[in-house]
UniProtKB/TrEMBL annotation, chain A:
Protein name: Menaquinol dehydrogenase NapGH, periplasmic component NapG
UniProt xrefs under PROSITE patterns: 4FE4S_FER_1, 4FE4S_FER_2
Keywords per UniProt: 4Fe-4S, Electron transport, Iron, Iron-sulfur, Metal-binding, Oxidoreductase, Repeat, Transport
One of the record's GO molecular function terms: 4 iron, 4 sulfur cluster binding
Pfam families, alphabetized: Fer4_7
Taxonomic classification: Bacteria, Pseudomonadati, Campylobacterota, Epsilonproteobacteria, Campylobacterales
Gene designation per UniProt: napG
Residues of the 4Fe-4S ferredoxin-type domain: 40-71, 173-204
Automatic annotation (TrEMBL), chain B:
PROSITE patterns the UniProt entry points to: 4FE4S_FER_1, 4FE4S_FER_2
Residue stretches spanning the membrane: 49-77, 117-137, 149-167
Enzyme Commission number, as recorded: 1.7.99.4
A Pfam family matched in the record: Fer4_10
4Fe-4S ferredoxin-type domain segment(s): 196-226, 227-255
Gene3D superfamilies referenced in this protein's UniProt entry, alphabetically: 3.30.70.20
Organism whose genome encodes this protein: Campylobacter iguaniorum
InterPro entries: 4Fe4S_Fe-S-bd, 4Fe4S_Fe_S_CS, Electron_Trans/Redox, NapH_MauN
Keywords, alphabetical: 4Fe-4S, Electron transport, Iron, Iron-sulfur, Membrane, Metal-binding, Oxidoreductase, Repeat, Transmembrane, Transmembrane helix, Transport
Protein name: Menaquinol dehydrogenase NapGH, membrane component NapH
GO cellular component, one term: plasma membrane
Gene Ontology terms, MF aspect: 4 iron, 4 sulfur cluster binding; metal ion binding; oxidoreductase activity
Length: 251, 261
């Protein structure tokens, strides 16, 4: 009787291990995915706190752009929507069905209003970055695939003309992203002709910098007003630089 | 047997409607069990999920809140835990596991858990939602994960199904639904005063205890063989006991107001 029990227990454990191994397979093959969220998504923390993971946005998207994260999508919040622009970019529907249909407000359509009308160009899904070492326009070849495909051509993606010093008689037509205007729809990334896209959309919070607010743009009217009432609570240690110079240890 | 067939029809029917809505554009039900749109107009949301979102963000839209109230009132009025027994697809998996468990003659539980654990997990997931600002149970929910996987044809559903069936078969009897799932616990609380209830009649009972063998919930049939009465709201209203009873001692009945117990 005891032996039979032991065999049964062993059998159970083998069954469990097999099932666990099978399920782990999908985790193990996971590749990290950039968290590009649908239009109207607020910053990542706020978005995650509101997304109920129902997939109504996925269903509403007429271009099948949005996907729900599975285990193999590598830890971006199981069941939350995202898209891979190299496969299917956001086609910038003017009625933004994904955000309008979102039941919980995780995709906030009201954040994309201008003059009480929906304006998809106000969405900030990510921002495009050019790799100038692999973009063939930087070799001097003529390619403007990304530029031509940008829904905000000459606003979000501009061409900069430059003289080609190497040949002395040709021009560079270089794609330059204006990250203030770029919505991150990813049509540039999708249309890029290089083997792996040389223009890539990345989540804004990953690479967007932030300037200290003590710098003044003299050419911007009213920019000086920003420091008329400076925050005096910040205490700077005036002796710090002196100590640094006098302190032999750190040299 | 009839009730189980009907139950499976309802469970698979709802999944089929979701698949038709999400993939083939038949606009009857769209979305998934955590939130859906009925006939392209009415929003229905999982009240437990919305409660967690509310604690996590304090800014859930009114659409989700009204949707949650519709669902909450619906389940509060009809049979106890009707969601668990009649809608939730995880119930199909746990029934599969229980079937395998009896077929493989596995008797001993590897893990013995208290059925109250799910209430602790319920409270814990609400507290964690408020502290970490993310719907705690929703982010690990096997119910949501499996349903989403099925209705959007996602790959994770297979892993989740295998794990759930394996736990039900090898680790312990009715571990997922009856001991762990905080969503079930939530609906058990909500169903305290639901109208359709399973009623036990002591006078007709011949004490064969077949009902206790088939019942997926621990302890809800404790009154069998002792006194007549109404089964507690932890019952998932699956009707297995009603089917198996040859003495007509257990039946669904409509709870009259004021006749609690």
């Amino acid at each position: 009787m005891q032996r039979r029990e032991a065999i049964k227990q062993g059998f159970s454990l083998v069954g469990l291990l097999a099932a666990g191994g099978f399920a782990y397979g999908e985790f193990a093959s996971a590749s990290p995915v950039l968290k590009l969220r649908p239009p109207g998504a607020m910053d990542e923390d706020k978005f995650l706190s509101l997304c109920i993971r129902c997939g109504i946005c996925v269903d509403a998207c007429p271009f099948h752009t949005l996907k729900l994260a599975q285990f193999r999508d590598g830890g971006i919040g199981m069941g939350t929507p995202f898209f891979k622009p190299r496969e299917i970019p956001c086609y910038m529907c003017t009625d933004i069905p994904c955000a309008v249909k979102c039941p919980t407000g995780a995709l906030d359509a009201s954040s994309m209003m201008s003059d009480s009308k929906l304006d998809i160009n106000k969405s900030r899904m990510g921002m495009a970055v050019v790799d100038d070492k692999t973009c063939i326009a930087y070799f001097g070849l003529r390619c403007d695939a990304c530029y031509r495909n940008c829904p905000l051509i000459d606003k979000a993606l501009k061409l900069e003309y430059k003289h080609n010093e190497r040949t002395g008689k040709h021009a560079f037509l270089l794609p330059i992203v204006d990250t203030d205007v770029c919505t991150g729809c990813g049509k540039c990334e999708q249309s890029c002709i290089t083997k792996k896209a040389s223009i890539t959309v990345v989540p804004r919070e990953v690479i967007k910098g932030e300037m200290n607010d003590n710098y003044i743009k003299g050419w911007d009217e009213g920019d000086f007003d920003r420091i008329k009432n400076p925050d005096t609570k910040i205490k700077l240690n005036s002796k710090k630089s002196l100590n640094y110079l006098n302190d032999g240890d750190e040299l | 047997m009839k009730i189980t067939i009907l139950r499976r029809l309802v469970q698979f029917g709802i999944l089929a409607l979701f698949i038709a809505g999400n993939i083939y554009g038949v606009k009857i039900l769209q979305g998934s069990l955590s939130s859906s749109t009925l006939l392209n107009t009415i929003n229905l949301s999982d009240p437990f999920a919305v409660l967690q979102l509310f604690l996590a963000s304090f800014s859930v839209s009114s659409v989700a809140i009204t949707g949650a109230f519709i669902v909450l009132i619906f389940y509060a009025l009809i049979a106890p835990r009707a969601f668990c027994g009649w809608v939730c697809p995880v119930n199909i998996l746990t029934d599969c596991g229980a079937f395998l468990r009896t077929k493989l003659k596995i008797g001993k539980n590897i893990l013995n858990l208290s059925p109250n654990l799910r209430y602790y997990l319920l409270v814990l997931s609400l507290i964690f939602s408020a502290i970490f600002g993310i719907a705690a149970f929703e982010s690990v929910s096997f119910v949501g994960g499996f349903t989403r996987g099925v209705v959007y044809l996602g790959s994770s559903a297979i892993s989740i199904a295998v794990i759930i069936i394996a736990i039900e078969t090898f680790v312990g009897k009715r571990l997922i639904c009856a001991h762990i799932c905080p969503l079930g616990a939530f609906y058990a609380i909500v169903s305290k005063f639901s109208l359709i209830r399973v009623k036990y009649n002591y006078d007709k009972c011949s004490k064969c205890f077949k009902c206790k063998v088939v019942c997926p919930e621990e302890k809800v049939l404790d009154i069998v063989g002792t006194k007549s009465g109404i089964i507690s709201s932890e019952c998932i209203s699956c009707g297995k006991c009603v089917e198996v009873c040859n003495d007509d001692a257990i039946n669904f009945s409509i709870l009259k107001l004021g006749v609690n117990k």
